Structure formats: C-alpha cells, structure tokens
C-alpha cells in the first residue's frame, strides 16, 4: 500500500452504476394543464404578479397593480405588511389549530376576507365568479364591488351558503344605488360596505399614461401590447360584456357627507 500523500483526497471513486443513477431520475409526467403547471411554480404573491404581468395587457395590469399619484401610500401599506413579524410560540400543541373568528356579526374561517375590486374580470375573465367560489370554499367572506363585473345574483349562485358583502358607491342617480342595495339584500348579502372616500377619483397616473378606459379601446399602442397576449383578448371577446349585469357605465361615484 502506498502511503497517502499529505493533502491528497481520501475520497474513494467508482464507476457510476446505472441502477443507482435510475434512483435520481425523477422525470415528471408532462401535463397539458398549462394553467395548473404555471400556478404550481408560483410560490409567492410576487410570482403570481410576474405571471400576470406577462399575460395581461399593460393597461389592465396597471389598473390592478397601480395606485394614485406617486403610489406612496400603496408602498407604505406594502411595507407595513412586510414589517409584521410573527412571534414563534414553541412547545405549544398545534395538532389542532382553529383560525375561525367573528367578524361583522358572523363567522369567518380565517381572520380575513376578499376585498371589493372594480372591474375584476378585466384582470382575469372568471373574476368575481372565481373569487366568490373560492371564498365560499375557504369559508371566508367575499365582498362584491359596485363596479364589479358579475351580477349580484351570479355571485350568490356560485357561493350559495357563504357570507357575501356588498360595497356601495353612491351614484348621483340615487335610485341606482337603492336598487343595488335591495338586490344585494334579496340575494342574502349580509353586510353593506359604504365607501365614502371617493368624492373625486384619484389621479391614477399609470392609467392616464396607458390611456386606460372601460371598455378598452383599441389604439396602435394597445394592439402592439396585445399581440403577445392573445388569450386575454380571446377571453374578453368571447365572454359577456362587463357592463351588462349592472348598470353603471361608471358614473363618478360620490358621497354627500
Ligand atoms: C384593482 C383594485 C380595484 C379596487 N376596487 C375597489 C372598489 O371597486 N371599491 C372599493 O371599495 N375598493 C376597491 N379597492 C380597494 C380594495 O378593496 C382594498 O380596500 C384596498 O386594495 C386595500 O387593501 P389591500 O391592502 O389588501 O390591497 C380596489 C383595489 C384594487 C387594487
């Protein structure tokens, strides 16, 4: 036996054995569920945002992603969330955890719900149907916006037993507002959110720069932006118009207080 030279490797080498190699080969069966494949790779909300940006025309993406003026308050809100720290409680029995809580006179399986968003189907064609159905399945409340893009009744249809809330922008034509509240009550929505902070619309600069409008207008710029995103246009053109179920062509919402 030759003595080991100082500093030389002690690792023993062998020829790779095919049987051992096979153990490491884990080829996933290819799936034709492209949406599922994409979503499986999205591990955080930021991953989802990246996918949305790639697949949605700039004006629709920016309406959802942007905020007013320099977007300072949105960035502060985001920072406030990031500043939250959980204090770990170790050596505690967590074999059964119940996150159920009471909110606004009813229960919710988790201490949050889905906030109202205008023109939800602008971002994804299933919009409120997906949101309301998911909220129902998760046992959390879903809030429908006055400027939503699915009818009050259809939102209830996909979530027959869950808690639904209705967010109200008071229109100049008061009768429209009263009508919406009555329909929501009849459909079993249990809470009314009365929004009072929009006597005038915010200066959403991204929307201005994009020439954002409802319904979307085709200009040279929007066509150029749409070409790599054909599925969005396919969804838009092959599903019912956003304005059909509820009246507003968005009259500027206002509050008289
Ligand atoms: C794209 C978008 C649309 C919104 N539309 C409405 C709306 O129609 N009515 C409303 O009261 N709030 C609306 N909001 C405000 C949200 O309901 C929510 O209050 C706000 O986003 C703050 O919550 P967050 O920090 O979880 O985003 C909208 C927010 C976004 C991002």
UniProtKB/TrEMBL annotation:
Its cofactor is FMN. Residues 37-257 form the FMN hydroxy acid dehydrogenase domain. GO terms for molecular function: oxidoreductase activity. It comes from the Bacteria. Transmembrane segments: none annotated. InterPro entries: Aldolase_TIM, FMN-dep_DH, FMN_HAD. Keywords: Flavoprotein, FMN, Oxidoreductase. It holds the Pfam family FMN_dh. This is L-lactate dehydrogenase. The lineage of its organism: Bacteria, Bacillati, Actinomycetota, Actinomycetes, Micrococcales.
């Amino acid at each position: 036996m030759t003595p080991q030279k100082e500093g030389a490797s002690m690792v023993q080498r062998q020829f790779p054995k095919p049987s051992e190699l096979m153990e490491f080969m884990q080829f996933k069966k290819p799936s034709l569920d492209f949406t599922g494949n994409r979503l499986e790779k999205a591990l955080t909300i930021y991953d989802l945002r990246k996918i949305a940006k790639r697949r949605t025309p700039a004006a629709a993406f920016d309406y959802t992603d942007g905020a007013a003026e320099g977007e300072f308050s949105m960035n502060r809100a985001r920072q406030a969330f990031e500043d939250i720290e959980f204090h770990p409680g170790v050596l505690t029995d967590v074999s059964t955890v119940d996150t159920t809580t009471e909110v606004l006179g009813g229960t919710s399986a988790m201490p949050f719900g889905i906030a109202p968003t205008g023109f939800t189907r602008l971002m994804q064609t299933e919009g409120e149907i997906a949101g309301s159905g998911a909220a129902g399945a998760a046992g959390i409340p879903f809030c429908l916006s006055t400027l939503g893009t699915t009818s009050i009744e259809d939102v209830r249809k996909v979530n027959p037993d869950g808690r639904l809330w209705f967010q109200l922008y008071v229109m100049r034509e008061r009768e429209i507002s009263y009508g919406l509240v009555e329909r929501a009550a009849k459909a079993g929505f249990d809470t009314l959110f009365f929004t009072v902070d929009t006597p005038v619309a915010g200066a959403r600069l991204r929307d201005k720069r994009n020439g954002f409008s409802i319904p979307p207008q085709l200009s040279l710029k929007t066509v150029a932006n749409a070409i790599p995103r054909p599925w969005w246009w396919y969804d838009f053109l092959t599903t019912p118009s956003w304005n059909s179920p509820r009246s507003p062509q968005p009259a500027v919402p206002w509050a008289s207080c």
